[in-house]
């Protein structure tokens, strides 16, 4: 899927590539204003419903008003429509020329958006902004297979561990084996976004997720890890979280730990109160060797459409959606945990933010945005189902794992 981007995007997008293109949040580039005057600009924006709830007090309306103050060279007419980050690629691919000028997307869609020629390369200012704000994983999440950057992250998208602090100590939560020896734990083993977390050493299209030729590579001891999972699934203290049943069990008190993301925080806080604990992922032991659970991780990011009528303004606003000021406001208004490293004081007392940040930094691998990731989902779910249905056993675990690996990738050499 290597693309000659300059040829692919044509003259309209080429105009959008002029540097500096996307200014950082506080920049004031008036290069397009005529004779120091005001330029009339219309910007269409796609954002989730929750970011638009509350009218003028919504997060999006406030960010748009702040952007206008930062850019008096523009007189902007806003055209806002509702679209979730997860649906961005589907809509853009339908007709990139009719898509919004600025939109928010899940980073695992990057390959599809590039293929559709519906996402613009960041200019030098925006690229600098992204690198200054974010860790390596976040930067990699918006980097295409061509090595260029195409989005401005504003929050992480991953899963971590919730637990009952009245049941597990801080030492207990370091080891999954210790935890299941003490109390029931819920984990969605037949969810393809989760099961890969046990295959320590798994890589998805290279370390930074952009190497198409590298493919999906499993650790050499994947078969032994499968045997561990067979035994784990048979443990009475292991509860498979099918259709998010782990959350209901946490609320009922029948399990004492649950693996999920920030979207479950409010429900678990209501159930556990002061006993709610949040942490990065634990280790487990296979044949006497410690293994690290690692969640799939991505980001949600803002992008601009290279087909926009006003690509410079669109690129600037996309960068502003992910600016420090906008991320701070996002957390204040909607409790959206920022990726910006300068905002750690803002979330210093938020255990969910700390757990998510620690997971991204220490116990996660990048969920690649390349199209080849599509080969992972169905086989991974089927393998989890097979373990739960006892079709995979200790005796046939290696053969079953070999068949799965052959289907989606290869073993590490």
From TrEMBL:
Alphabetically ordered keywords of this record: Signal, Transport
A Gene Ontology cellular-component term: ATP-binding cassette (ABC) transporter complex, substrate-binding subunit-containing
GO molecular function, one term: maltose binding
The keyword Signal appears for this protein: yes
Matching Pfam families: SBP_bac_8
InterPro entries xrefs: SBP
Keyword flag Signal: yes
GO biological process: maltodextrin transmembrane transport; maltose transport
Signal peptide range: 1-25
Family: Belongs to the bacterial solute-binding protein 1 family.
The protein's name in its UniProt record: ABC transporter, solute-binding protein
Record lineage: Bacteria, Bacillati, Actinomycetota, Actinomycetes, Bifidobacteriales
